[in-house]
Amino acid sequence: MKLIIDSGATKAEWCLTDGMDIVKEFRTGGMNVSVLSEEEIAGIIMEGAVAIGNCPVTEVHFYAAGLIEGSDAAARALEILSKAFGSASVEGASDMLGAARAACGRSEGVCAILGTGSNSCLYDGSRIVHTARSGGFILGDEGGGACLGKLFLADYIKGLVPEPLASEFGKAFDVDYMTVVKKVYKEPAPSAYLGSFAPWILGHRGDPYVDALVERNLTDFFERSLLRHGRANLPAGFVGGIAAACASQLYSIAGRFGVHISRIIASPMEGLLEYHGL
Prior knowledge:
Elements: E1 2-7, E2 11-17, E3 22-29, H1 38-52, E4 59-64, H2 72-84, E5 89-94, H3 95-104, E6 109-114, E7 118-123, E8 128-132, H4 136-139, H5 145-157, H6 165-172, H7 177-185, H8 190-195, H9 198-202, H10 208-224, E9 236-239, H11 241-245, H12 247-257, E10 261-265, H13 268-275
Parallel strand pairs: 1-4, 4-5, 6-9, 9-10
Antiparallel strand pairs: 1-2, 2-3, 6-7, 7-8
Helix pairs in contact: 1-2, 3-13, 10-12
């Protein structure tokens, strides 16, 4: 049986397949293997191994944030997987390669991730040949949920969000100025905090201010990330919750830039199951 693990920093999706059907699927905490300790990674992997139980695993395909081929962190993670799943063959790759395989399969294309953060790469059907550096939520992540939340919150604290939208937002969240500053500058996971506002913002599409903000965020992603690969002629596949939620806007913006979108999926797992033969 094949075990596919797709792990971001906050959650990991596990799917066991016999090649014809999904045998088991579940989630655990995420693994950014360049950030977590060996003990933390081992704890999450063992949690997954317990959930798999006695099912015979012959192949493990592990896609994870922070997994850089040849790095010490990657080697440690793969060693833990090998110990957990005995004689199974183990492949490890970055979450970016996982997204590219999910969105583009074995065809050349551009892959874009739009989730809490954002990223993109040029993919030759087998490997990543060019990336556009994300920059994170401070220096980049255009198009992602954290960037959308940042843009909205920056306007809100300066009184630039129009009424009645501003009052409705203020009632929905604890967003007095000092709370916002503390969450963004002094507490852990500011990107997740900013991204937590994205569902509310996207739920108010139809409001002219929100529509313009979403359009700005996605257009910035095309201009500052997707088109930086210099291959607008190639089909582009999109992966992530924000991508799926903003599909209509993405198709519209892509049309303006002459980009053909081949696929938009919320989770890489759907495409990875196809890639690995389900």
